[in-house]
DNA sequence: GTCTATACGACGATAGAC
DNA sequence: GTCTATCGTCGTATAGAC
């Protein structure tokens, strides 16, 4: 059967997302995921090349099911960031995976590179629009600003890992509304 | 002997830093480190509570041997960030450790929290100085700006992990010089 | 205090039967 | 498509030599 396999694969990904959201990146094993799916480890591995591949596909699926970022890119990005605050395990997964993806052979390398490129293009186009509307100074390089916005959103996650008082969306808000002077939503 | 142990401990830390800088966070094991020190695993573990503790002490030592950040904090921070570009394994180690340190029981939790707090205080004081000198608008919250600067520096590391074209110090330069309008060094 | 030897359980991965 | 069986490696723990 074809459809059954696809469904099972998606079930595994959903379970894995749940497990990793609960217990974090280092805390969980394939055996835990397998048990919650009613499978053995080998059964899970039928669908994925490796543990790291499974982790990668988890965030791929997360991207697919989540809302895309089109209009008012900075604002929807900020909302996404804020939403992550309720799933600490997912933030940990994303950060750990990014670190591991530094290896070009890692299954997440291409995925994350593509993700960054897309986000950068969307944000950059948004900056250009706002410059034409006079909302942002025209001397700023749109691509550099896009990179800055992404770095801010990501870096806030690192601080938030360790500092309880930090708000996940804090630095991004500071940048967008206080420093760049965009209109508050 | 007392001094010998301290020396051996530091040798282990230096070797570990080298190994992790070469092979990354996930790629290396205690056995590799031990072998390069002419010790067994248990010999290494005499000095550290766990593998994660060893990793934590590596970055503690790194902080101690590095230059502290006093005057013109943003600039020295930018130089530090730029210097990391030559040691990708260390950036990977730092990011992975931060993710793991989300667990309050992790040995790096306190260390990183303290490190962030110190950096924030230094940067925040620097912002206040510049506000008094008229270099920065006074309506900005110094602590929020400090958090923004740190987030930018850290987030740039995440992007850089995956994107070869990204410059590690790029986003921080954009923020400090193009957006905040600080004088270029 | 410094270090070796040895053992343990859990892990990711693979081969082959059904 | 899923299993059982097995492998090598990992971090960790303990007992004890020097």
Describe this structure in words.
2 copies of one chain form a homodimer. With 185 residues, chain A is an all-alpha fold. Chain A is 73% helix and 0% strand. Chain A is built from 9 helices and no strands. Chain A has helices spanning 3-27, 30-37, 41-45, 51-65, 73-84, 88-100, 107-132, 142-162, 170-179. In chain A, helix 1 (3-27) packs across helix 4 (51-65) and helix 7 (107-132) packs across helix 8 (142-162). Chain A is elongated. Chain B binds a DNA duplex (18 and 18 nucleotides) through helix 1 and helix 3.
Kindly report how far apart the N and C termini of chain A lie.
49 Å
Percent helix of chain A, as a range, is over 70%
**Poorly predicted runs of chain A:** none
Task: Write down how many β-strands of chain A occur, each being a DSSP E stretch of 2 or more residues.
Answer: 0
Radius of gyration of CA atoms of chain A, rounded to a whole number:
18 Å
The biggest beta sheet of chain A is recorded as: none
Mean residue pLDDT of chain A: 95
- Biggest chain pair interface: A-B, 48 and 48 residues
Q: Number of helical runs of chain A?
A: 9
Estimate the strand proportion of chain A: under 5%
Order of helices and strands of chain A: HHHHHHHHH
Query: What global shape of chain A is seen?
Result: elongated
What is the assembly state of the chains in this entry? homodimer
Overall SS class of chain A: mainly alpha
